[in-house]
Amino acid sequence: MGDNYHTLDQYSSEKNAARQRRSKWIVIGSILVLVVLIGAGVAAGIIISNRNKSNGGSSSSSKGNNKDPSVFTKDPRLHKSFYGLAYTPEGSLVPECGNSLENVIKDIQLMSQLTTRVRLYGADCNQTALVLEAIKQTKVDIQVFLGNYVVPTDHAAYERQRDILKDAIQTYGTDHIAGVTVGNEFMLNYLTEHEATDPDGEIGKQGAAILLADIQDTRDMLASLALPKDIPVGNSDAGSFFSTDVLSAVDYGLSNVHAWFANTTAEGAAEWVTTFFEETNVQPAALLPNKPKMYIAETGWPTKSSDAGNANNGGSDASVAGLQAFMDNFVCQANDNGIPYFFFEFFDEEWKDIQFGGVEGWWGLFNADRTLKDITIPNCTAP
């Protein structure tokens, strides 16, 4: 561990570069998505049509072909060993919004064989309702941490997603909702854009004020629904970029902790992640009056790079063997130690590779076509 643990500048600078690029599509797409949503009745249409009638475009696993999505073949290679999985339905990028209930049902069928928890990042393109409808149709045991991807320069994006979340909660209830996460790497992006590094400094407090207002607004929205149970409200950020002000106002924090960006070896990655999370996130959170529960929001290992320059992080290659080593050393041990985590990620996301290159598109347990990579899933019981 030693030096690897204290390479926060390396971790944040490399992570900043990748994550700042990733957020650009949000800013552009949030403007264009209004055209897609106006008059379309997207949320209501998908919910109603898929709840009350068959879908002519459905696959053999959906009701459109008179098949019950709750009856599907289990893959003996899969084990319910993961505490949780990070997931964004394919086609959930604004303004295209090319996702579908058919594909989300297939994903939920697979993920239900690996975990009982899934975290989402945002609510655009009706992904909240799609996931909850897929859980309803497949009748699987999955709890979902919903998400609202907050953009510093576009408050309308927050409000749009808040209203989508509200509609989905009113339609599906709270049985499969574990929390609502407001913001993902907001402070990391805000500080980077303002050439600052301290989430508790003057610039950091300016960014935190935006998040705090949205967090309170989300709490007010949930309170207005008079729900049968309280839904926790949290925040997600890069591991070393949490604002103390924000953590003091939430029920939970989701921390992105990637050993790859700290130049560790694949064999040493599990120890690095565990130590970083405990010392940087869990211990400081325990000192706050509200004692927010801390989760690892993202952790994993890339299996390839689209260019030679990013094929090695300085410690190990991006490789299937590296992913296997990290899983073997992390998953069951984290389960035994009661560390809540969301493995990053369910499948390779091709749009990330197209837009960002490097290792960005290659973190999945599954390939983009949902075939399992040449890995052995650990066989242990997740809490």
Automatic annotation (TrEMBL):
<keyword id="KW-0134">Cell wall</keyword>
<keyword id="KW-0378">Hydrolase</keyword>
<keyword id="KW-1003">Cell membrane</keyword>
<dbReference type="GO" id="GO:0000272">
    <property type="term" value="P:polysaccharide catabolic process"/>
</dbReference>
<keyword id="KW-0472">Membrane</keyword>
<keyword id="KW-0812">Transmembrane</keyword>
<dbReference type="GO" id="GO:0009986">
    <property type="term" value="C:cell surface"/>
</dbReference>
<keyword id="KW-0624">Polysaccharide degradation</keyword>
<feature type="transmembrane region" description="Helical">
    <location>
        <begin position="25"/>
        <end position="48"/>
    </location>
</feature>
<dbReference type="GO" id="GO:0005576">
    <property type="term" value="C:extracellular region"/>
</dbReference>
<dbReference type="Pfam" id="PF00332">
    <property type="entry name" value="Glyco_hydro_17"/>
</dbReference>
<comment type="function">
    <text>Glucanases play a role in cell expansion during growth, in cell-cell fusion during mating, and in spore release during sporulation. This enzyme may be involved in beta-glucan degradation. Active on laminarin and lichenan.</text>
</comment>
<keyword id="KW-0961">Cell wall biogenesis/degradation</keyword>
<keyword id="KW-0325">Glycoprotein</keyword>
<keyword id="KW-0732">Signal</keyword>
<dbReference type="GO" id="GO:0009277">
    <property type="term" value="C:fungal-type cell wall"/>
</dbReference>
<feature type="compositionally biased region" description="Low complexity">
    <location>
        <begin position="53"/>
        <end position="64"/>
    </location>
</feature>
<dbReference type="InterPro" id="IPR050732">
    <property type="entry name" value="Beta-glucan_modifiers"/>
</dbReference>
<dbReference type="InterPro" id="IPR000490">
    <property type="entry name" value="Glyco_hydro_17"/>
</dbReference>
<feature type="region of interest" description="Disordered">
    <location>
        <begin position="53"/>
        <end position="73"/>
    </location>
</feature>
<dbReference type="GO" id="GO:0071555">
    <property type="term" value="P:cell wall organization"/>
</dbReference>
<keyword id="KW-1133">Transmembrane helix</keyword>
<keyword id="KW-0964">Secreted</keyword>
<protein>
    <recommendedName>
        <fullName>glucan endo-1,3-beta-D-glucosidase</fullName>
        <ecNumber>3.2.1.39</ecNumber>
    </recommendedName>
</protein>
<dbReference type="InterPro" id="IPR017853">
    <property type="entry name" value="GH"/>
</dbReference>
<comment type="similarity">
    <text>Belongs to the glycosyl hydrolase 17 family.</text>
</comment>
<dbReference type="GO" id="GO:0042973">
    <property type="term" value="F:glucan endo-1,3-beta-D-glucosidase activity"/>
</dbReference>
<keyword id="KW-0119">Carbohydrate metabolism</keyword>
<dbReference type="GO" id="GO:0005886">
    <property type="term" value="C:plasma membrane"/>
</dbReference>
